[in-house]
Specification:
The chain is an alpha/beta fold and about 375 residues long. It contains 14 helices and 13 strands. The longest helix has 18 residues.
């Protein structure tokens, strides 16, 4: 058994990690703004929760109001620093601390100094320098597009230096760190999982050929490229998620459902033939594994982690990976994936036995094996 502290401002994937590591017999403490009742909803036992929600409630409420007015960015730094400080004061003895990058330098320093804990920093996206470079290029073309503030670059680089290991979800993220001078041996690649009790095979839908895009409609996710690729194809586009910095098309073949609770997403996947995600920069999008678990084919860029999921599947033909920014390749990938999707009948269960390898349980087992090779034997 290892005493593990996991720190995150929100739920992200690390709440799922906390649940899985607890189920494997470790003593887990999960520090975040997530209220205890919400953590329990996602299967984390009450004994593992160390919510700081009430310490941050006024800041969270103010940030929501300012965010609605488009003024939330300045408060994000304050909210993050407050989360770190409160976590550092409540931190219990631990052998390992797992923290979301750019958020918990005080807590990391305390865990290292007081208990000589092994520090793992979770980075769900590319190296911050690579991410900023890509998004700055997009911003130059589309001035309304979001990019990375300099303060975030500083925080990320600081945490990379503090970490014993940096945990990332995909191969292209690994390469972005190596390109920025981080030794490969300091990196642990572990593709994210999916809740198979919530996402499972669906029947081939009736109706017109439908492409799904699930997530924020924005330039970062290549939504403008997707719209361009769909020109000349007699496909319908169905979107679920918030509308971001990229204009949503007003044509008859485009529909957005807005923000939906995760429990409603399987119904959305059941309406699509294929899933498309031509992101310019994204570590490994959760929605890809969700779509695959529901039986959809996936067409994605080489900066989404889709190829990491493809290597797990029994049928790698379910995933088509195209070069980032290649609209022609994206269009052809959509055409071929749609042809394959429409040739199927009945329940879409193409992943077969490999579906279990996409689960959060499998994710947790890979993490557990990594920890056992990293943490001194006396802590096990």
């Amino acid at each position: 058994m290892v005493r593990i502290a996991i720190a995150s401002p929100g739920r992200f994937h690390v709440l799922d990690l906390a649940r899985e590591l607890h189920s494997l017999g470790h003593e887990v403490r999960f520090y975040s703004y997530v209220p205890g009742f919400r953590s329990k909803r996602f299967g984390l036992p009450e004994a593992c929760g160390r919510s700081i929600f009430w310490w941050g409630a006024p800041l969270l409420a103010l940030n929501r109001v300012l965010g609605f007015l488009g003024l939330g960015a300045p408060l994000n730094s304050v909210q993050r620093a407050w989360c770190d400080w409160v976590t550092s004061t409540r931190l219990e003895p631990c052998d390992v601390m797992i923290a979301m990058s750019g958020c918990f330098s005080l807590s990391i320093a305390k865990a290292k100094k007081r208990w000589n804990a092994v520090i793992l920093v979770e980075r769900a996206s590319r190296h911050i320098n690579s991410q900023k470079e890509i998004l700055d290029e997009v911003h130059a073309l589309h001035p309304g597009a979001a990019t990375v503030p300099d303060v975030d670059v500083h925080r990320e680089l600081r945490d990379y230096a503090l970490a014993d290991r940096i945990v990332v979800p995909s191969r292209h993220v690994v390469e972005s760190f190596v390109e920025n001078g981080v030794p490969r041996e300091r990196l642990f690649r572990n593709p994210f999982g999916v809740d198979l009790s919530m996402f499972s095979p669906t029947p081939v839908p009736a109706g017109p050929p439908t492409v799904l895009m699930v997530g924020t409609w924005c330039y970062r996710k290549g939504c403008d490229l997707l719209v361009e690729a769909l020109r000349g194809l007699d496909f319908r586009l169905l979107h679920a998620g918030p509308l971001g910095d990229c204009p949503f098309p007003s044509g008859a073949g485009f529909e957005t459902l807005g923000i939906l609770d995760q429990t409603k997403l399987k119904e959305v996947y059941a309406r699509g033939h294929i899933m498309a995600l031509p992101s310019r920069e994204e570590g490994l999008a959760f929605v890809q594994a969700q779509a695959l678990a529901c039986g959809l084919g996936l067409v994605c860029s080489d900066r989404t982690g889709g190829d990491d999921l493809r290597e797990i599947l029994e049928d790698p033909g379910l995933v088509t990976v195209v070069k980032t920014g290649d609209v022609g390749g994206l269009r052809e990938g959509l055409r071929q994936a749609m042809r394959l999707a429409q040739s199927k009948k009945g329940l879409r269960d193409s992943s077969g036995a490999s579906l279990e390898k996409l689960s959060w349980k499998a994710y947790g087992l890979r993490y557990d094996a990594f920890l056992r090779g990293l943490v001194p034997a006396k802590a096990l």
